[in-house]
């Protein structure tokens, strides 16, 4: 399996957290060294093979020892410092990192108090032990109880990006066997239980390819299926021993439980038996090499993979054909991006260069406003200096539009005055604080911001972090009504940890508001996350016409001017 830059950065960051948790050794700066190396590596544009070819030399903050460990990770898939640190920490304690609000310092305090698992933390929050710990208190205990319940419910799922990378990696390992990504990843679900792949091969051929790649590889009963784990992620590889049964296998591996059961029932009513072993009638296995062949034989329409959820029942036939849905290639503007002006890891020029290299048309800046002090948010003076740089780069031919991600304050007003906002080409308004306001206040707050005459896009509208925290409580429909009435664009944040707006909401509102698929990229590599936002959009039946950043630069600027003029 290939090691990605994302996995390298993740290994460095996790190692730093674990070293902070352990607090061992005679070098108090070791954890910070890994953390600094991670941030520096994020800002490097070269791919892993190029970095490995030069043994990770020449990267700021990446010393010889860490460079050697990174090179070994690329070669073996094992990051030694992380393995060493993790071996000193019980698995239950490691699971506490899944709880929102818990960092190494607080986890250490819990561990020292004998609280060493998610279940143990839940009980300790309930019985008062957490409230009694120094630095916690009753309010913290209540907050952690809610967060740990969420973590327990999410612990069997993976982020779409993680499962996608694992699935794609398996496809590379299985090259030549007609591998296809299947299951939750193929359908673009926001979180994934199992990374699935289908192939045309004998069971022996599958086992041979996956030996040493998939941990604990085992057949699953009498099913044409092997299961195991890759880097802790559950995986399943289903095989069609002959091409003629591949269509049935792909259908059975290409939908959720409800979809599979409904198909089996439809087949049964028509005198067929449908399973991963093939489409069978009167004991004869029919030749159906594709999903379309199976459905034609059954006399049923083929339901696109994007539309195989219960929420699509009764509506999918009226949605656009997959060939009409938005693609990554349709995106011209990479809006809502960050740079070293706030908390990004690359310059505006470098982010723009990567945007063009990826085949898009222009970059929209979106650094944080002054209230986001934790993210090096820009004062008005610094914003003016940034605007000067942007205009100079534009004059030099760099395809840019000048924007900002402006904080929505507690009363729904914005973090910059109107005369400053008016100098920007576009504005993203987002919530980054006060997540626990009452639903009524939170709703009023977002409606006021979404109704502002200079707000172009409402950023990550619910504030959710998948598998980490739910969105804040609010009347989302009321906010969407305000966006529809004012012509405010709603963001589909493509960061795989957000994927906010949820596809189900986008499906409901697809014909009433416009959307922007934004990466929220803080590093050049983050621009590639557009694919996850596109997956969300496709599940919602969105075409390029629904998405404003499919417009070319001049058309986008004209859209913003028309939007502002319509509100005056």
TrEMBL record:
Residues 54-73, 94-113, 128-147 form the Helix-hairpin-helix DNA-binding motif class domain. It catalyses: DNA(n) + a 2'-deoxyribonucleoside 5'-triphosphate = DNA(n+1) + diphosphate. Keywords: DNA replication, DNA synthesis, DNA-directed DNA polymerase, Exonuclease, Hydrolase, Nuclease, Nucleotidyltransferase, Transferase. It comes from the Bacteria. Signal peptide: none annotated. Residues 333-410 form the Polymerase/histidinol phosphatase N-terminal domain. InterPro entries: DNA-dir_DNA_pol_X, DNA_pol_lamdba_lyase_dom_sf, DNA_Pol_thumb_sf, HHH_MUS81, Hlx-hairpin-Hlx_DNA-bd_motif, NT_sf, PHP_dom, PHP_phosphatase. Its EC number is 2.7.7.7. Pfam families: DNA_pol_B_thumb (PF14791), HHH_5 (PF14520), HHH_8 (PF14716), PHP (PF02811). It is an enzyme of class 2 (transferase). Its cofactor is Mg(2+). Residues 3-309 form the DNA-directed DNA polymerase X domain. GO terms for molecular function: exonuclease activity. PANTHER family: PHOSPHATASE YCDX-RELATED. This is DNA-directed DNA polymerase.
């Amino acid at each position: 399996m290939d090691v990605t830059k994302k996995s390298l950065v993740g290994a460095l960051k996790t190692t730093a957290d674990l070293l902070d948790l352990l607090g061992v050794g005679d070098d108090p700066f070791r954890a910070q060294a890994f953390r600094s190396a991670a941030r520096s590596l994020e800002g490097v544009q070269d791919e892993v093979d190029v970095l490995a070819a030069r043994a990770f030399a020449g990267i700021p903050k990446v010393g010889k020892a860490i460079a050697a460990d990174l090179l070994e990770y690329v070669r073996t898939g094992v990051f030694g410092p992380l393995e060493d640190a993790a071996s000193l920490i019980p698995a239950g304690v490691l699971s506490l990192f899944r709880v929102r609000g818990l960092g190494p310092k607080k986890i250490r305090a819990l561990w020292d108090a004998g609280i060493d698992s998610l279940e143990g933390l839940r009980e300790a929050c309930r019985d008062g032990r957490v409230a009694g710990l120094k630095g916690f208190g009753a309010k913290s205990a209540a907050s952690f109880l809610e967060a740990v319940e969420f973590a327990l419910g999410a612990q069997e799922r993976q982020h779409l990006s993680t499962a996608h990378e694992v699935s794609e990696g398996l496809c590379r390992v299985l090259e030549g066997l007609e591998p296809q990504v299947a299951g939750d990843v193929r359908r673009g679900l926001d979180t994934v239980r199992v990374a699935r792949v289908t192939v045309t091969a004998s069971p022996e051929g599958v086992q041979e390819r996956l030996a040493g790649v998939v941990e604990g590889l085992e057949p699953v009963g009498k099913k044409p299926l092997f299961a195991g784990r890759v880097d802790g992620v559950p995986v399943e590889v289903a095989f069609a021993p002959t091409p003629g049964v591949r269509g049935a296998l792909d259908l059975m591996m290409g939908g959720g439980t409800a979809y599979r059961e409904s198909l089996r029932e439809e087949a049964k009513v028509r005198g067929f038996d449908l399973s991963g072993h093939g489409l069978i009638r009167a004991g004869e296995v029919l030749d159906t090499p594709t999903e379309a062949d199976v459905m034609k034989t059954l006399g049923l329409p083929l339901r696109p993979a994007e539309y195989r959820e219960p929420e699509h029942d009764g509506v999918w036939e009226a949605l656009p054909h997959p060939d009409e849905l938005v693609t990554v290639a349709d995106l011209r503007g990479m809006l809502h991006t960050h740079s070293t002006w706030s908390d990004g890891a690359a310059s505006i020029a470098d982010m723009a260069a990567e945007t063009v290299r990826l085949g898009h048309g222009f970059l929209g800046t979106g650094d944080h406003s002054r209230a986001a002090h934790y993210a090096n948010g820009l004062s008005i003076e610094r914003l003016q200096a940034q605007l000067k740089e942007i205009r100079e780069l534009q004059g030099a031919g760099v395809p840019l539009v000048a924007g900002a991600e402006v904080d929505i304050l507690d009363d729904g007003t914005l973090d910059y005055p109107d005369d400053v906002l008016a100098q920007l080409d576009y504005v993203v308004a987002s919530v980054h604080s006060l997540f626990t306001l009452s639903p009524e206040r939170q709703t009023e707050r977002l409606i006021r911001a979404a109704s502002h005459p200079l707000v172009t896009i409402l950023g990550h509208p619910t504030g959710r972090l998948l598998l980490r925290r739910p969105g804040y409580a609010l009347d989302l429909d009321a906010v969407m009504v305000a966006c529809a009435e004012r012509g405010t664009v709603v963001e589909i944040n493509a960061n795989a940890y957000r994927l906010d707006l949820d596809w189900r909401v986008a499906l409901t509102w697809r014909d009433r508001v416009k959307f922007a698929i934004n990466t929220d990229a803080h590093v050049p590599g983050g621009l590639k996350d557009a694919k996850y936002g596109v997956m969300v959009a496709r599940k919602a039946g969105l075409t390029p016409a629904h998405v404003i950043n499919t417009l070319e630069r001049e058309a986008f600027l004209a859209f913003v001017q028309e939007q502002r003029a319509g509100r005056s």
